Amino acid sequence: MTTKSAKVGSWSFERTSIAEEFDAHVRRHLPWYDLLSDKVADIAAGYLPANGALLDCGCSTADLAIRMQDVFKSRDASYVGVDVSEEMVEIATERLDSDEYRINFQLEAVDVFEELSRKPEAYDVIVANLFIMFLPPEDRRFFISKSVSALKRGGILIVVDRIEPEGGYLSSVLSRSTMADKMRAGTPLEEIAAKEVSLIGVQRPTNPNIYSGFKQFFQFGDFVGYVLENNY
Ligand SMILES: C[S@@+](CC[C@H](N)C(=O)[O-])C[C@H]1O[C@@H](n2cnc3c(N)ncnc32)[C@H](O)[C@@H]1O
């Protein structure tokens, strides 16, 4: 991302420059991304049986497929990734098509609701990592209920989302600390500021009330990991 082009609310994943740079970008802005994504992958592995199926919602460059490649191979399980950004799906497809990764996969540039409406009780695991905060707020509860319908019994929905800060002085301290995290990761100050400005009205933290009934497995600042087991 060039900082000069950063404008209020201009952030979009549907740009080749953003998609090509995404893997490096996400690590500059969320320095704990790899640690968290390993946790998501381990939880997913705990619920993905032999011949099972995992849906990755807003898969971007299919990092999760690569992170879990040994699990997919040894269990002959399938990875389905959907992302509305054709640019992201193009990069993900190129990656997973390479001889290096031989997993059963399907990638599609579609809206997540299209995929969720197609197949009831199709998935053992549904992952929404850093995804729901980019959905319109009015669609978020619907996303959860459609995901539950798309899960097999015994399956799991794994969510990592940004939630609304609780307010007060602690929120100011935590938001400054987040800035310090990015600086410690070597992210240029101008890029940090430009990204924040570009996210106005594009990325909106979720009211955590929608996660009542979920179990929490992670929190770092405003970023929270939740799971919902489909036992019923
Ligand atoms: C922050 S990225 C997700 C990162 C990725 N899950 C990971 O683990 O690295 C959010 C992604 O969600 C996608 N997205 C946003 N709204 C979507 C929708 N309605 N349906 C499908 N994908 C969507 C964006 O194109 C973007 O690639």
UniProtKB/TrEMBL annotation:
GO terms for biological process: methylation. It is an enzyme of class 2 (transferase). The keyword Transmembrane does not apply. The keyword Methyltransferase applies. Keywords: Methyltransferase, Transferase. InterPro entries: Methyltransf_25 (IPR041698), SAM-dependent_MTases_sf (IPR029063). It holds the Pfam family Methyltransf_25. Residues 55-155 form the Methyltransferase domain. Its EC number is 2.1.1.-. GO terms for molecular function: methyltransferase activity. It comes from the Bacteria. Coiled coil: none annotated. Transmembrane segments: none annotated. This is tRNA (Cmo5U34)-methyltransferase. It comes from Roseibium aggregatum.
